[in-house]
Each structure stands twice: as structure tokens, then as C-alpha cells.
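This follows on from our talk about sequence and fold. Can you supply me with one protein entry, sequence and fold together? Could you add the entry underneath, on a fresh line?
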Amino acid sequence: MKLIFKVWRQESPTAQGDFKTYELNDLHPDMSLLEALDFLNEKLTLKNEKAIAFDHDCREGICGQCGIFINGRAHGPHKNQTTCQTHLRSFTDGQTVVLEPFRARAFPLIKDLVVDRSAFDRIIQKGGYISANTGSAQEANSILVSKEKAEKAMSLAACIGCGACVASCKNASAALFTSAKINHLNTLPQGELEAQRRTLKMVSQMETEGFGHCSLTGACEVECPQHISISSIAQMNWEYMTARIFSED
């Protein structure tokens, strides 16, 4: 199998970037896209050329580290999957595959296909946790959680922070990510005490980071590898307005 890769190369955040074209032969359709990049980097290294920088870790669709815009779509041609889950059988023999970094003001480029997603970490630091007193752990059965709430919280906690929601949004909004991190804690009784403060502080940090506003076009929901619904955004908006009203009293 032969593919032509058109890859964005940029040495540093301040350097001028452009696309470089690489032709690869002898590829196997069952190779993942990241394996193909490994193969390409090996060839570049043997020619004393600089390898292409890209993010990766588990390569099992779990960690959220990989994130590449593939032919104009976050993570590739299939919905609800990560970049590492994209295989070469998704493309046709001889096809040109365009690889770009996630582009958003809040995700500044570091090098080639690598962007800085630490804005997500700063949003989490503002309230994506619960406070707990020191001492012995509380008896689990003393905190009653309904099956419905537990399942909802777990589905929202599944967010891996890959950033595809931001990359696919025309406004570069982080509303889906932020709402998932807020709502999975606000849904549980352990998170109720800090729910209003958590919502206000995390939404405020999201805006401070320079993410755009959500216009509910739904592109984020289509690309989310964990199938998180945009109904989470609606819930966050309701929680935010409620918290604003009570905080002004």
C-alpha cells in the first residue's frame, strides 16, 4: 500500500511553518496511522533528517495524548475515535493524507503536530476535584448514590481530555470538556457541597484561557471518542446561571 503524507512541519512556535510531502510505500493496511508515522520517522532519521514530532502514549484510545487533524477532521475519517485508533485501511491506495496539528488559540503549537493542551489542566485545577477531610475513609454504603446518577457520572468522567472537541469546533470552544469535568462531580453527592463554586471557577478559567463560546453546532459530540453528549453543555449552562444567581444574593 502506498500513501502520500502531507505533514505540517514547524520547528518552534515562532518559526515559519509549512507542509512537507512524503511518499511511503510498502505500508500494510492494518498499520495504525501512528505506526506509519513511526515508519516515516525511521526513514527520516536514516537520512539524517529531523523526525516529525507528534503526541502519543498508550496507543489504545485511552490516554487522550494523540491528537492530529487528519484530512480536515479531528482524529481522522471516523467519528468517535482517537488518532491512534485510525488505521491505514481507512484510506485508499495512493491517497494523499494531510496531517495538521489541532489549531486553537488556547492550544499553542509547540512543534510540528504537537500542541500545548495545558489549558485543560488549569481548568481542572480550578475545581475538578472534591475536598475530603483527613482521617478514616467513609463507609461506602453510607453515601447513597442511585444507579442512574452513578451511570451518568461515570459516562461524563470518561472524558480523556484529548481536545478533539476544541479542534472540531468552529469557535474552538472547550464547553464539552469543561462541562464533562464539572457535571460528573456535581452529579454525585460527594461533589454537591462545592458544586456552585466549582462551576463558577471552572467556567471562568475556561474563558480566561481564550476558548471560544459554544454555539451548539454539535461537531464536538460527533468527534468525541467517549461519546459525551452536548446535553452536558446544557446542564453546565443551567448550573452556571443558577450559581450566578445564588452567588449574587
Notes: The domain at 3-111 is CATH 3.10.20.30 (Ubiquitin-like (UB roll)).
